[in-house]
Amino acid sequence: MRGSRTLGLLAACALLGHASMGDAQVRDAEVRDAAAETAGRQALETFITQWNTADDANLRQAMHFPFVTVPGGGALFIDNEPGDFSAGFEQMRATQGWSRSSFDFGAYTVVKSSADKVHAEIGFSRYGADGTAYMQSRVFYIVTKRDDRWAVQLRTSAASPADLGPDERADIVAAARQAVLDFFTAFNAGDAEGTVQSLNHPHLFMTPTGGFAVAETAGDGPRPNFEQMRQGENWHMSTIDDLEASIVTRDKVHVELTFTRWHPDGTRYWTVPALWIVTRAGDHWGIQVRSLMPATFDARSN
Q1: What mean pLDDT is reported for the chain?
Q2: Cβ-Cβ contacts under 8 Å for 163 (sequence gap 6 or more)
Q3: Which of 32, 6, 34, 11 lies closest to 21 in space, CA to CA?
Q4: 259 and 238 in contact (C-beta within 8 Å)?
Q5: What residue ranges define each of the domains in the chain, with the CATH number in brackets?
Q6: pLDDT for 168
Q7: Regions of the chain with pLDDT less than 50
Q8: Which of 7, 3, 75 is nearest to 243 (CA)?
Q9: Whole-number Å distance between alpha carbons of 32 and 131
Q10: Which residues contact 168 (CB under 8 A, 6 or more apart)?
């Protein structure tokens, strides 16, 4: 589900208290990688083939570890090693009568791609022993290339509830968007603890090449080093250039955004597209996954 393109550069600057930084949205050309998209699709074909062997050992060969599942509701499951992961085939047989699953590549959508990472959505079905589909839905995957091998590394539901009305959806998107704005407000104030308060934990940060950093609690993980950014990059502030809610459920929103870092003289030097997954844990909407794509503009070495 696409929509809710709501925030441009000027609006973001105004909301963050920096309305003077530019008069137009940053719009670099979208970068796609056709070879990676083909490889990502092949990785998903391998994944579903191995899934249908109902053998965890086979399925693990189609995955990269650490492997992440984002169920929503503030939960984040990380299987650090292959032996940590189990798909629960026997339980699916016992409780659902599961026999096999399939991907609908006719309903396959690449959201973003780069040389080392593909964000994609696909439809899937589960079938009973009589061949009847008893479940149909959509799932979102992050597929990465590591050691010259493409495999699945993150999965989460991509289906919005059928009874999610427009007013409720708008309220959910507004809450998730506010969590993103709170992060940038704290970031531009040089408030490292404030950025952490806008997160949900465990929290996952994923680099453009698929590298992982996990903070299990609010006390873990690196904090933004604003002094280092000022000294090393001549950073002054960051802005949101684009923000769009794609997947929306009652406890999880996928936010496709682009952000830019600026020098004090008003010139930009780094623009990055990203996926942030915002979840609701109790009453707290917080950012739980940040997956960056390669920069569309990078003048940090200039």
Answers
A1: 91
A2: none
A3: 11
A4: yes
A5: 9-29+161-298 (3.10.450.50), 34-157 (3.10.450.50)
A6: 97
A7: 1-24
A8: 7
A9: 38
A10: 250
